[in-house]
Amino acid sequence: MGYKTLKGFGSARLIVKKSVFIGYASPAKTEEEARKFIAKIKNHHGDATHNVSAYIINDGRNFAVRYDDDGEPKGSSGKPILNVIQNRGLSNVVVVVTRYFGGIKLGYGGLVKAYSDAASRAIDKAGIVDVYETERFEATFPYNFFHAVKKTVEDAGGRIIWEEYGQLVKFTVETRKGEAERLMELLRERTKGRVGLRALFMLED
After folding, report:
1. Cβ neighbourhood burial of 190 (10 Å; 0-12, 13-18, 19+)
2. Is 31 exposed, middle or buried (0-12, 13-18, 19+ CB in 10 A)?
3. Among residues 178, 122, 86, which one has the least CA distance to residue 7?
4. Which of 98, 197, 80, 83 is nearest to 138 (CA)?
5. The dihedral of CA 198, 199, 203, 205: what is its sign?
């Protein structure tokens, strides 16, 4: 089971009829992380007219969806930001859009568009990444199988996260959950049984 989230922090600025909108997007694994991020932006932009926020947290055990219009007309800002997060299929994400009012009212539709655009651009800047549950195993083999093992792992979508060189080569391989057994079988075939394999069990965070 996997989900989409943000690679890192992203921000974007746009001006709509003299109002300045600054979008901030960040990954957040817990509600506490999301709230801290919102508080940090509010603190940084204490002089702003509004700091509108939304987040979705889903870690498999806890699920939370929240948005806050922060004084803007109901449904014109927080909900549109949340919709952007949902439409991108993202989880464990928090977005804050700061507004400095420029003296010209945008109307309900104008607010929805401005907040949506700022959120969307901030998410684009942050970048989207697929996160999957993973499992690991160790592969030990003679040097003459180095290229065959490396290519087999990479072609199957696995990742070599550690390499050790002694009398034999030792790789620590990471795959998506449920795919390790198939890849280990493939490695046995490609090396004619000359590879030593050992499943590694990871502790949960």
Report:
1. middle
2. middle
3. 122
4. 197
5. positive
Q: Report how far apart the first and last C-alpha atoms of the chain are (Å, whole number).
A: 17
Model confidence, pTM: 0.71
Q: Which residue type sits at 195?
A: V
From first to last of the 205 residues of the chain, give the pLDDT tens digit. Answer: 578 899 999 999 999 999 999 999 999 989 999 999 999 999 999 999 999 999 999 876 778 999 999 999 999 999 999 999 999 999 999 999 999 999 999 999 999 999 999 999 999 999 998 887 788 999 999 999 999 999 999 998 888 999 999 999 999 999 888 888 899 999 999 999 999 999 887 544 4
User: Distance between CA 173 and CA 180 in Å, rounded?
Assistant: 9
